[in-house]
Amino acid sequence: MNFTRRKLFVTAAAATAATALTPLAPARAAMPLAGGQVPGFYRYKVGDYEITAVMEGVRRFPLPDALVSNAKKDEVSLALAEAYLPKDMMTITYTPVVVNTGKKLIVFDTGNGELGAKGTNGATGQFIKNFKAAGFDPAKVDTVVISHFHLDHVDGLLTLDNKPVFPNAEVMVPEVEWKFAMDDANMAKARKLDVDILFNRARHNFGVIKNPTQYQWGKEVAPGITAIGTPGHTPGHTSFALQSGSGKLLIQTDVTNLSALFVRHPDWHLLFDMDGNLAEQTRRKFFDMAIAEKTQIQAFHHPFPGLGHVEKDGKGYRWVPEMWLPTI
After folding, report:
1. Is the dihedral of CA 260, 263, 267, 269 positive or negative?
2. Is position 8 within any domain?
3. Range of the domain at 217
4. Does 87 reside within a domain?
5. Helix, strand or coil for residue 68?
6. Which DSSP helix (H) or strand (E) runs through 76?
7. What digits encode the pLDDT tens for the residues 262-272?
8. What is the Cα Rg of the chain in Å?
9. CA–CA distance, 96 with 305 (Å, rounded to integer)
10. Among residues 108, 123, 89, 84, which one has the least CA distance to residue 173?
11. Across 85-108, average pLDDT
């Protein structure tokens, strides 16, 4: 039997009409609508380490004219439509990562926090709720590693009343980012956008959490986890290479934002990238490294849980999500 779109929907309409003419069956108790999602977290193993991707939220906003500085808005809309996303909306997912080495519990980035939840009516700021649902206790976190100082990575360090969310954790920050963000001269000449989402937020959070440990690129932040300099998005933006036994994982933080745009079009310069040209160079080097080593990537801004691989695809790349498994 050959199906066409017209036949499919005509058949569906006829079935609905027939149902409407059928005598009603005895009423049964209705199942109320759920009205919400189950807690968002996903676990997998890399060698002996257990990784948990924790959903922090999803923010949607009208597509800005200048979201991509070197592409027309119509081109961006087309790329969104080709990925079956609303062509006039930007959708950003936030996924911090928790690594349990068996000896230490390590959180990589903290999301938008309670401040973000307040500003987005709960669309973001869900990290701690889901973190606890995954069986974790913030008081038992040993280390919090910050990749860079944008607000969606550092604002989850504090509660709304400016109390540390992870009271017993060592907080680690990139040395390069710290020197840049704490320099008044850099702040004075920065774009207003960067002052709002980086300088001010860093100074607020680290005015409460004083003297965080500064880590260096090329050095371990924990056993088997090495900091990789991936600048461009911010001057001190950092990703991480995790190895346990024969297992490897690249935690890419913001090397790319939404995969439908910036994996497919690595040459596009995101509004939030402080140095678009350098961000593009970093993106290509990072992806080429991942492809050469066939390494899994855990991405902060890709559709949840943000785990997958990249492949070359013409002048760009293609994101291949990892299969979701019911066992660890």
Report:
1. positive
2. no
3. 40-321
4. yes
5. strand
6. helix 73-82
7. 999 999 999 99
8. 22
9. 10
10. 108
11. 97
